[in-house]
Design brief:
About 35% of the residues lie in helices and about 25% in strands. It is α/β, with parallel strands linked by helices and about 270 residues long. Strand 1, helix 1 (about 20-30) and strand 2 (about 35-40) form a beta-alpha-beta unit.
């Protein structure tokens, strides 16, 4: 097993073992020899232990506090309301935290302050988006506008608080329909399980209040589709991606792969990309 420069193995924990968590556990177990999966958190510990039995490594099923003590890196892939419970012990211990529910960082700026105080670090992976390195590079100069247009199959928007508040019945939509237009900050409030990608884009660029977003419900598609358009003093560019969903229609398969790539980069001797 590959060791870090100081002789330690990079010990990783996953919180929690849901759809994305299981995909990550499999990836870390099979294709990332540079790290060791040592811990997972799960709502049902017994079910988690039974699922983990298929892995070559046998991580322990632990609580969030114990995970922060055991691991160098903790990957958060949980319902958004659990972010503080997962993040606080990790950052207080000065460890590395990979955050998928990055929309929660807009509501919890104290987590960033906690990381700074204790020497921890928060990583936001690219996830189901693309081109965040280009956006971050453009932000070194002056970005004048960032717009993202998202098209989602109906199942991918079910249960969104914004739709309930507006009295929009997603099942009755028969053609492509614009259901939201506004800022990334407004979007994450109304679609907390759907649009962490918009927050990641805003954090890489000009912030959640200036990053504009359209959300379209489309009964004719089966993939989550995002198009980003950026105008800056260095470049003007547009990028599109179509994500194949997991068993959870709100999450693309590439999300877990993005996190695996980030974890690989943490211990790699060669790192490609901004």
């Amino acid at each position: 097993m590959h060791k870090e420069a100081d002789g330690r193995t990079l010990k990783v924990g996953i919180a929690v073992l849901g759809t994305v968590g299981k995909s990550l556990a499999t990836s870390l177990d099979q294709t990332l020899p540079s790290v060791e999966l040592v811990a997972v958190a799960a709502r049902n510990a017994q079910a988690a232990k039974e699922w983990l039995a298929r892995l070559t490594t046998q991580p322990k099923v632990v609580g969030f506090d114990a995970m922060a003590e055991m691991c160098d890196v903790v990957i958060e892939c949980a319902p958004p309301h659990l972010l503080p419970e997962i993040a606080v012990p990790v950052l207080t211990a000065g460890k590395e935290l990979v955050v998928l529910s990055c929309g929660g960082l807009l509501h919890r700026p104290e987590l960033i302050e906690l990381a700074e105080t204790h020497g921890g670090r928060i990583h936001v992976p690219t996830g189901a988006l693309l081109g965040l390195d280009a956006v971050a590079a453009a932000a070194e100069g002056e970005i004048t506008s960032v717009k993202m247009v998202t098209r989602k199959p109906l199942k991918g928007l079910q249960g969104a608080p914004f739709l309930k508040e507006q009295g929009i019945s997603i099942d009755q939509i028969a053609e492509r329909t614009l259901v939201f237009s506004g800022s990334a900050r407004e979007a994450i409030k109304g679609f907390p399980a759907n649009l962490n990608v918009a927050v990641a884009l805003s954090l890489a660029g000009i912030g959640p209040d200036r990053t504009m977003l359209e959300i379209w419900a489309d009964p004719e598609i089966t993939r989550n589709m995002h198009t980003i358009t950026v105008e800056s003093d260095a470049a003007m560019f547009s990028m599109s991606i179509e994500n194949i969903p997991t068993d959870n229609p709100k999450t693309g398969r590439i999300t877990a792969q993005s996190v695996s790539a980030l974890v690989r980069k943490l211990s790699a001797p060669l790192r490609v990309g901004t």
